[in-house]
Structures are given as C-alpha cells and as structure tokens.
UniProtKB/TrEMBL annotation:
Pfam families: MarC. GO terms for cellular component: plasma membrane. Keywords: Cell membrane, Membrane, Transmembrane, Transmembrane helix. Belongs to the UPF0056 (MarC) family. It comes from the Bacteria. The chain crosses the membrane at residues 53-82, 124-149, 161-183, 195-214. This is UPF0056 membrane protein. It is a multi-pass membrane protein. It is found in: Cell membrane.
Amino acid sequence: MPYNEYLLVFGRSFLFALATLLPFLNPPAVAPIFWTLTEGASAQTRASLSKRVAINVMLMMTIAMVAGNLLLSFFGISLAIVRVGGGILVIHSAWRLVNSPDADTSRVARMAESFTPEMARSRAFYPLTFPISCGPGTIAAAITVGASLRDHNPLLSAVRLAGSLPGLVVVSLALYACLRFAAQILHRLGENGTAVFMRLSAFILLCLGVQIFWDGSRELLLELMRQGMQPIAAPPA
C-alpha cells in the first residue's frame, strides 16, 4: 500500500474515533454534574480533579478500545451484560443527582470544611470518572471502535490504532477543558441557571442510563427468544 494511503487511513481512524466517542462523552453536559459533586472544593482541588478525571477517562477508553473485546471474551461477559449493569449504575447516579437538594451558602461552607484531599482522591474514579464522565455507553462505543480497527493486515491495524489514539487524546482534552473551566461556564448562567442546567443534565443522564439499560435488556431478550424458537432435537431412537 502506498505511503499516502496509510496517511489517509490514519486520518480516517482519527476522525472516526473522535466522532464516535465525543458525543457519548458529551463534556459540556458533564460540567454541571462535576461541579455539583465537588461542591465545597477549592479551585485548586477542582483543577487537580479535572486533570485526574481526564487522564482516567483516556486510560479507560484506551483499554476498552485496545483490549475490551478480549477482556469480555476472557470473562465470558457479553456487551449486552455490560450495558445492563452499566445502565443500572448510571440510573442510580443520575437519580441521586436529580433529587439532590439545591446549594445554599451554609451548606457550601460545611462542605468546604469536609472536602479533604483524601475525599477528592476517593471520588476521582467513582463516581466522577465512572460512570459520570465515562459511562457504559462510552465504554461500549470504545469497544466498538476497537473492533472496527482490526484488519487481516497487521500493519494496517497498527496504523488504524495509531490514528485513533490522538482522537482519544482530543476527547480527553475537551473533557478536561469543560471540567477545568466549569466555574466560568456556569458563572454566566447564574445560580438559578446553574441549578436548572444541572437538573436538566442529570435528567438527560438518567434517560441515557435507561436507554443503555434497555438496549442491553432488549438484546438479551431477543437472544432468549431466538434460543426458545430453535427446534428441539429429537432423542436418538
């Protein structure tokens, strides 16, 4: 294959990974949820958490893309099961956010006193990275991207993988920017606008969790129906 053909494959893989994963991650919608879950934290703590969450998300997407199918096959877990389990997690997290009380000055002060660096580190992965930022939908999309990169030509597969990795970096940088500057983004909305935006984002996250759960459940039900419709072999005479 000519050199320029490999460059074309590299560019297509980059755009494919970017266009597939960015809508699932949806960094602008994560910003108000991140702000709510880190209520009372200092600006420095939030900046550190933004960086840590973005790195965690990039690592999770890379692992899911490179080795997701192998890990699922090794443990005998189907992608439908991942959607069902992950959907339940997203629904649980979103439901808590939808029903969380609005912020007030005294509560923020109390939270600021108790939001220690240890608490920030403990929340960096769960729930801020998974399932809030990088949920089962993103993981399933990354696994799908990884499966589409494979080819019978090992060099072509390597070029596709090399092209998709910068796409993951761009997606993670977009997430970092939205989390890092969430205060500036939400400041323009005002206190009431931020509360409305947070509720709306939490509700969208809840709907997304239901959709992920339903997609996995439907796939399992269809597989169960296909197995039930198969003719039963007659016993040997």
